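**User:** I keep going back and forth on a fold encoding question. It is easy to fool oneself when nobody else works the same problem. Could you pick a protein and write out its sequence and tokenised fold? Could you put it straight underneath, so I can go through it closely?

**Assistant:**
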Amino acid sequence: MTDINIRITGRVGHITLTRPQALNALNHAMALAIEKALDAWEKDDNIAFVLIDAEGEKAFCAGGDIADFYRQGTTGNHKGARSFWRDEYRLNAKIANYSKPYVALMDRIVMGGGVGISAHGSHRIVTDRTMLAMPECAIGLLPDVGGTYLLANTPGACGEYLGLTGAHLSGADCLYAGVADYYIPSEKLNELHDALLQDGDLSVLEAFHEAPGLSRLQEQQPIINSVFSLETIPEMMAMLADIGSDFSMKALKAFKHGAPYSQMATLIAIRDARNGDLEQALRNEYRFVSISTTEGEFLEGIRAAVIDKDRNPVWKFPTLADVPKTLLAKMHQAAEDGDFKL
């Protein structure tokens, strides 16, 4: 398979994403191949741990292959995307519950589906080049792949801030937010990579780990808590405007680029996830995505972002007031094709 390289190196189950020309975007076949390998390696006593990395100089994984979703959805095939999401979410949960260490080298761009195959792992490595984000509201989706659960467990109201604005996290921010465990300077990453494969010993991670330096997310935590703990999005936007700082105005600008329906659903999903587990979060995310190509904004979001690239989506529900309450109510109703279950 040209999109992914799965092999055993010594005592390590080694997975490499090999689609650098597509920023290592995850497609359905890749997700199924990873799951198949994990199932086999979990039963193999010769495998000490799993290592996932990626080829290329730009991204670990920039997300799912959303251009394929667009091709399917615009021809009336909505089952393909739903099938992918079910299989992808099952993989995300499998990684989170894996019985052996799962090591992810989260270097450079990590977004959407890339977060799902890395940030649920047991040993998550970031660098000075890491740029992690969940910008799904900008394309008419919501942070999925268990993203609402990860966001719900960040400090204070960081989850709402990151989910609603799609803000980028540095390596230092990732450690502060609890979505990474080790910080390795990028110039030492190849050396660490070789050491892990050669020895099959995770203790080398401690030797390579360094203090990450300043987290801008931590620095802005007081403002984030004040704004994003508010009950509603209009209240948040009004307070950001009143504060008027560079940080608040950047967050407000990001708000204005998102789909109102996605933002409202994201706020519900993140706050619901604080009172549940990963499986419940994935279930709720599936309830949203399962109708995103039929009743939602996802296809228009993809068109504007990656098909026509005009960055000017025409949302079906252009304001928060336009979003039907009946549509939001589906977040708390079983999906029409059945809820996601492990």
The first helix runs from residue 28 to 42. The beta strands are 4-9, 12-17, 49-54, 59-61, 102-106, 109-111, 123-126, 131-133, 182-183.
